[in-house]
Amino acid sequence: MKLFNKSHSKNSEWYFPGGKDLQMESGSNASLEMFKDNPLDSLAREICQNSLDAGIEGSNKPVRVEFTSFKVKAENIPGYLELRYEIIDKAMKQWPNEQKTMSMLRKMDRLLKQKYINVLKISDYNTTGLRKENWKSLIEQVGSSVKKDSSSAGSFGIGKGAPFAVSDLRMVLYSTLADEGIKSIGVMKFVSYKDKLNGETIITQGTGYYGENGSKKPISKDFGLGGEISRTEKGTDIYIIGFNQELMENWTKEITYSLANNFLFSFYTNKLEVVIDNKYMLDYSKMNKIIEEIRNDKKLLRKYEYLPGYYDVLQDEDHKEFNLTGFKEYGIKDGEAILYTSNKGNVNRRVLMTRNAGMKIKDLNRISSIIKFSGIFYAHGKNINRILKQLENPNHNDWSKDRSETPKKAGRFLKDMNRFIKETIKNTYTEKVADEVDAYGVSDFLPEDINSIRLSKNKVKQKGHGAKIEIEDSKKKSDTLVVREYSRDSGGDIEDGVTKGGVGEGDSYGTAYDGRGHKGGLGLGNNFGYGDRPGTHGPSDDNDMFIRNGNRRKRVSTVKYRCTEIDYVSGRYRLMIKPEQKLYNVKITVDVIGDSGSKDMVQLKQAKYHSKLLDVKYSSIYISSLNADAWQPITIKLNRNTRLKLEVEIYADR
User: What per-residue confidence (pLDDT) applies to 331?
Assistant: First the structure.
């Protein structure tokens, strides 16, 4: 196969290398498609990560990235006439039956016929610029990523596709000032098409270049599209030509929230500052305003639900810091990573995992559903970064042992790292949870249950907006490990024999609609799951486990309850229940809530009201009545010996 080194069009400024029998490339470009789901978020992550990696070593100045949007006349786009009247026309003739490719080409054609075209310019400062080896990796190579050291963030060379994913022309212009001076080039992720060169038919490759004299050789001057003067400070300018109109409508807000979410720790450590549209300087001092906007907007909070908790860790003056130690077998020195933790503010029970650049990699969860905490794990040392970089996926949002040349060792390392985080958090906060209960409503709680709790000492500590009370049992060091308070206000679900029926004893537990497992047999595997076939071993009508239609219970609204752990090893918990009105013929159901918020059934072994045993049917407790406006204690024993987060639903006669 012969490749040609010269442009195949005599007066061409755009150069699409071509040759005989090349594979045809359509508009479905895999390196761009992976960024289409969240294009602006991907753009912000990839651009700022690359700029942080190019930061000047030893500098105390933060890397500054500037995002600026403007419009230019279409005729000022490099190679405009050739694109509009020649290249796109040839490509359309090549792909008449490929719908996606034709749609892309028609959109490009319409855009070039407009008077003005949108441009998003991204510039960085306090960086080295694109050195010779970085330039070659960015412009000429696929799947490569040359960084200044082995611990830098990028490693796949895939992130370079993010700017093209937000360009309707798939065109990006690069201009950089580095040690070698100024150099610029245009790149277009286009499609293949047939052309003639010296009377011979060739097939162009999908990527084209706008360089010196129609080649891949860079131009030794700035593009100057925005009318700016030539660079005098090292750094790189990226021009995204044909910036998507729909994305442009709200790009400043999208970029701002994305940067806060992905680079919170970079801002905190003063490694990064961002200027948005020449108007807004984003640094750590602006985080409070952004976080408050997120807290007060339900839509934003759903999207960035964990961010406020991480911010509260950094804002807590009493947050704790733990150095990673004991990893010498992996070549990691003590102190190469720090775990920051706090149990104040908007706790999310997760740990933000990040490396040296400070970009968020993932949220580590499944640490504890009981302990209140938020955390940030910052791996800043060269050795741990070198290991984590090898395990990082192309999207930079997880680490996997299978990416290592020694998967077993890598797997042990990841487990040990996660274990360090989990054990540190549990050892730090479990004791505090054991000794303190929230004093909200304590005036109601203590008189009603004074004998069962047996307070031998109490001491109220006032701090901030809330009071806390320490409890010590005369027989046990800590009678209470965990307290939660809930208020039910969910309306009038009917529980009358057609909802939550009796419990079958065979291959289906009937927890669905006719009391016999119809429409929802509950399987007997390790994980409970609702099925769509009727249970075959539900109770008979005369069985006392069957809830008759004559007893029509209604789910009670505005009832308060607290779930208190007494001794999780023996499965003992205390429920404190306070209805607003007296309830009769009461049924109390108990569920376990997982980290994801999903419910799981739990079996009750025993329930007592003071010293009286109550009737128990699998996960339900039956009691004749509950008094109004008074906390009433029910001690329960479960069939599990792990710490659980419990939820209660209460039904009573209407």
Answer: 97
- C-alpha span between 339 and 417 (Å, rounded): 11
Report the pLDDT value the prediction gives residue 480, as an integer from 0 to 100: 35
The neighbour count for residue 242, using CB atoms within 10 Å, is 23
Helices marked H in 16-94: 30-33, 39-53, 80-82, 88-94
424-451: per-residue pLDDT in tens? 999 999 854 444 444 333 334 444 343 3
Which amino acid would we find at residue 647?
E
- pLDDT band at residue 595 using 50, 70 and 90 as cut-offs: low
Q: What is the pLDDT of residues 498-552, one digit of tens each?
A: 333 333 333 333 333 333 333 333 433 444 444 444 444 444 433 444 344 445 7
Task: State how far Cα 585 lies from the chain centre.
Answer: 45
The amino acid at residue 546 is F
Alpha carbons 417 and 398: distance in angstroms, whole number: 14
Burial of 390 (0-12, 13-18, 19+ CB in 10 A): middle
Report yes or no: 317 and 325 within 8 Å, Cβ to Cβ. no
Dist. CA 401–CA 403, nearest whole Å? 5
Element housing 574 (H / E): strand 572-578
Contact of 452 with 403, CB cutoff 8 Å:
no
Tell me what percent of the chain is helix, strand and coil, each rounded to the nearest 5: 25, 30, 40
Q: What are the tokens at 654?
A: 């209407």
Binned at pLDDT 50, 70 and 90, residue 142 comes out as low
Alpha helices by DSSP H, listed for 269-333, are: 287-295, 298-303, 307-315
- DSSP-based three-state secondary structure for 633: strand
Angle at 358 between CA 174 and CA 314, to 5 degrees: 140
Radius of gyration of the chain (CA): 32
pLDDT in the model for residue 506: 36
The secondary structure element, H or E, covering residue 391 is helix 382-391
- In 343-500, at which residue ranges do the beta strands (DSSP E only) sit? 351-354, 360-364, 374-379, 436-438, 455-463, 466-473, 483-488, 494-495
